[in-house]
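in:
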């Protein structure tokens, strides 16, 4: 007679179990929860190893991941500290010597000297007095039974004589007939002027002269009782006219 082996009912609550599958399940759940916690804290590099079987491998956190987590924590702290506003330090008080020292004005290239006023000269008139300031000793007209054909002007001997107007020197030397050293100037308008009795002549024939230019010096050469200028105006050569009205109409008063 075969012995009946005891048969265990599945529903029997007292049925014994080995317990290994339950322990492995609990271990796996702990590993998953730990990994989720590390990920939530921002710590990367966690290596979680799960193995099946009777002896599952424990979770391991690499040292490199730990050092990176510490570096990230320090970087986070430094970022927060750098965002804190920095109170500017008070500016240093200048030393008394620097405060009292007077600044030296710098010379600039734009500084220019004041322009000098331009010298203005009055334009020379077309006609001038041949010997300004001279005294009249004789006018044009009859004298001692003959025509005195010019005006005599007297100043000390050697006084400069000036051209009455611009023109060209046609004669310079002894003019004979008692005139002594004489200069004739043709003014190009049909009129000439004659300067007689000079002590020294300062121009030459053909020379161009301007009104007021020195042409010689007062003297007493020729028939003269003393140093003076015998001044004549010719309307055409040797056709003497009265110099007084002629010069007066040109703005020059010879005193006659």
């Amino acid at each position: 007679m075969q012995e009946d082996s005891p048969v265990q009912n599945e529903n029997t609550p007292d049925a014994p179990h080995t317990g290994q599958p339950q322990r492995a399940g609990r271990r796996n759940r702990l590993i998953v929860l730990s990994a989720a916690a590390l990920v939530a804290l921002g710590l990367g590099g966690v290596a979680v190893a799960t193995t099946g079987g009777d002896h599952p491998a424990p979770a391991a956190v690499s040292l490199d991941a730990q050092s990176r987590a510490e570096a990230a924590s320090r970087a986070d702290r430094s970022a927060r500290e750098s965002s804190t506003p920095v109170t500017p330090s008070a500016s240093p008080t200048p030393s008394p010597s620097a405060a009292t020292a007077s600044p030296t004005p710098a010379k600039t290239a734009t500084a220019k000297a004041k322009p000098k006023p331009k010298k203005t000269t009055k334009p020379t008139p077309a006609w001038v007095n041949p010997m300004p300031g001279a005294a009249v000793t004789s006018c044009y007209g009859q004298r001692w039974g003959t025509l005195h054909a010019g005006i005599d002007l007297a100043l000390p001997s050697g006084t400069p004589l000036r051209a009455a107007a611009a023109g060209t020197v046609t004669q310079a030397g002894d003019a004979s007939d008692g005139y002594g050293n004489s200069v004739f100037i043709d003014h190009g308008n049909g009129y000439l002027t004659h300067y007689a009795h000079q002590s020294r002549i300062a121009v030459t024939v053909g020379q161009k002269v301007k009104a007021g230019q020195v042409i010689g010096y007062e003297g007493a050469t020729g028939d003269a009782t003393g140093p003076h200028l015998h001044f004549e105006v010719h309307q055409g050569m040797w056709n003497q006219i009265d110099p007084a009205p002629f010069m007066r109409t040109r703005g020059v008063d010879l005193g006659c």
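note: Helices lie at 20-40, 63-82, 96-100, 243-248.
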